[in-house]
Each structure stands twice: as structure tokens, then as C-alpha cells.
TrEMBL record:
Record's keyword annotation contains Membrane: yes
Pfam families: TatA_B_E
Compartments reported by the entry: Membrane
Membrane topology: Single-pass membrane protein
Keywords: Membrane, Protein transport, Translocation, Transmembrane, Transmembrane helix, Transport
Source organism per UniProt: Kitasatospora paranensis
Keyword Membrane: yes
Protein name from the UniProt record: Sec-independent translocase
Chain residue ranges for the region called Disordered: 97-142
Amino acid sequence: MFTDIGPLEVVALAVMAIVIFGPDKLPKLIQDTMGFIRKVRAFADSAKDDIRTELGPEFQDFEFTDLHPKTFVRKQLMGGNEDPLGFKELKDGLDFKSALNDEPPTRSSAPARTADLTKSAPVSSGAPLAAGERPPFDLDAT
């Protein structure tokens, strides 16, 4: 949220605060603001604790960040496993440096899996289709 603010902008905001509120009232204003933020955090924490107690003991380890749509979908689709689709093995087998330098790929320490194309389904060489005839529909291809 605050990563877009540079050091020069922070200095400009501090100078504006000193000019607007004055050097006498600025410490009190900062103290009041920090107190307000502490109260809001305490209220949010107590609300989370109340929700956890109302849900019951099976939800004591429930995290509210799990309700974020991106996290929720990732957990539901991928499960609790760190790499359920095996992308880590695929990533470890790639050698980007040799691909960028147009060099032949080097063997990595991890065994690379290769696809066996000889076991693919045979292509049927049936009769040609008549005019207006629809080609056969393959459910596995879609």
C-alpha cells in the first residue's frame, strides 16, 4: 500500500503536516492517531477471537486470510500439498541459460521425464467425409 511513496514524497508530507498543524500540535496529533490505530486493531482482533469461539473448537486454527478468493481457490483446487501438479519437477528440469544462449541443454541432476509418443492413440485413416458431413467428435481431445 505504501510502497508507491518515495522518500521525497514522505519528506513533502512531513513538511506539509508541520505547516498545517504546527510543530506544537503535531506530536499530540501523531499520538492520537496511533492510539486510534491501536484501538481499531484491538477491536479487529477481539472480533476475530469472538468469531473463532462461536465457530467451535474445530475452527480454532482458522485463518481469515483463507477467505481471500485467490487463497481460497488455491487451497481448494491444489489442496494442502505444496506442489500437487508437479510443476517443481518440471521447473527443476529446465535450463533457461542454455535456451537463451542457443546452446544444447545440459543434463541436470534431476531425472527429466520425456513423453513417449509411440504409445499415442492410432490415427484412423477412415473414408473421406462426404460434403456436409460432420467430422467425428473426440471428447478426449477437448
